[in-house]
Amino acid sequence: MDAIETLQNLLKRLPGMGEKSAARLCYHLIRTDDSYNKALAEAISQLKEKIHPCPICGCYTEEEKCRYCTDTERDQTTLCIVEEPQDVLSIASSGAYNGLFHVLGGAINPLGGVGPENLSFPLLMKRINEGNFREIIIATNPTEEGDTTALYIRHLLKDKPEITLTRLASGLPIGGDLGYADKLTLARSMRGRIRL
């Protein structure tokens, strides 16, 4: 196996990267400046060393705690629950939400072998029990797994009538992924969220 084939095979393992896209990217890197390729390789190699989940919310950070958990200007009474760390960035960049976040690390998917015990529900409940939240927004993806996860969260919070539980409104496509939604759609969904 030669260097081009090895790189193409590695690139094909990236999400959304098919055979042709991997080949196109591979040949682009061959034509690119060596300093860029070295900087890219260095950035990739340091990713796992520098980035870790925030111990409070689960969002990725280089610091001890993430910027959302340490920002005292954020609304401390609202918590938005998402599936993955990249969903935090998608919602935060919409400009429609200024509260705190909690990353579950996925969604309940019994067929895929992911149950509640595989997600960060214990940390979520600890935060809720120790916090002063008035509203919890469930921002799981509009999929069967996301809906199942939302129902499970509703079940966990059934004895907390003082907390308003909401879910993102329509505007996000069914079967879609928050990471691919545009800012306007996310902002509209956040403003139009409904009680669950």
Automatic annotation (TrEMBL):
InterPro entries named in the record: DNA_Rcmb_RecR (IPR000093), Rcmb_RecR (IPR023627), Rcmb_RecR_Znf (IPR015967), TOPRIM_dom (IPR006171), TOPRIM_RecR (IPR034137)
Pfam families associated with the record: RecR_C, RecR_HhH, RecR_ZnF, Toprim_4
Domain (Toprim) ranges: 77-173
Source taxon at top rank: Bacteria
UniProt keyword Metal-binding, yes or no: yes
GO molecular-function terms, A-Z: DNA binding; zinc ion binding
PROSITE patterns named among the record's database cross-references: TOPRIM
A Gene Ontology biological process term: DNA repair
Keywords in alphabetical order: DNA damage, DNA recombination, DNA repair, Metal-binding, Zinc, Zinc-finger
C4-type zinc finger span: 54-69
Role noted for this protein: May play a role in DNA repair. It seems to be involved in an RecBC-independent recombinational process of DNA repair. It may act with RecF and RecO.
NCBIfam families registered for this protein in UniProt: recR (TIGR00615)
Protein family according to the UniProt entry: Belongs to the RecR family.
Protein name: Recombination protein RecR
Organism this protein belongs to: Candidatus Ornithospirochaeta stercoravium
Gene: recR
